[in-house]
Amino acid sequence: MIAIVDYGAGNISSVKKALEHLGADAIVTCDPMQIAAAEKLIVPGVGHFSRCQSLNKNLRSSVLESMRTGRPFLGICVGMQWLFQGSTEAPETPGAGIFSGECSRFPAEVKCPHVGWNQIECNGGSRLLHGINNGAFVYYTHSYRAPVIAETSACTEYGGAFSAAVERDNIYGVQFHPEKSAETGLKILENFCAF
Fold first, then answer.
1. What's the pTM value of the predicted model, to 2 decimals?
2. Is the pLDDT of residue 162 over 90?
3. In the predicted model, is pLDDT for residue 13 greater than 80?
4. Could you list the active site residues?
């Protein structure tokens, strides 16, 4: 069973519908006991990074313990940004600190937010992006982006390169929305379901 963590951020129903389309057993929950019992976790999110304050306050220990025990975790959009140390969007709200670095706003010379289809360049060897071609288009809607780090498994160029996807062991994150990225996105979610 996949637990979709409800911490008050948007886009949860779209993620659940995409998983149901793939035949996955998924629930939406804010119950720490259900999170602890889940085989896999997804933390989606659309909105301001300050929404992670609710995640930190009520569910942080359950989510981090699930990660620590090796269960597959997928952060989507704000859920991926939460994996970093924080964001300049809400400096008072800490991230999980799984990955080093801080998320920051796009530079003034590009239109912000970054909304619509853009390409990803995969670094190779990614489990989550297995079967996804370089140059595949995915759907974005965000104003802040994560830096490129050693664990970056795919990049996108928009006002400079940023992390489109990150992964380390059982922990995965994508800045784009696989649930809105047509066949490419469904393939990525299918890969995650198979872990």
1. 0.96
2. yes
3. yes
4. 77, 177, 179
Distance from C-alpha of 120 to C-alpha of 181, rounded to nearest angstrom: 12
Residue 192, amino acid: F
For the chain, domains (ranges, CATH) are 2-194 (3.40.50.880)
pLDDT above 90: residue 68: yes
Average pLDDT (147-176) is 98
Q: Give 52's contacts (C-beta < 8 A, 6+ positions apart).
A: 7, 9, 45, 78, 81, 82, 90, 93, 95
DSSP assignment string, 48-100: -GGGHHHHHHHTHHHHHHHHHTT--EEEETHHHHTTSSEETTSTTSB---SSS
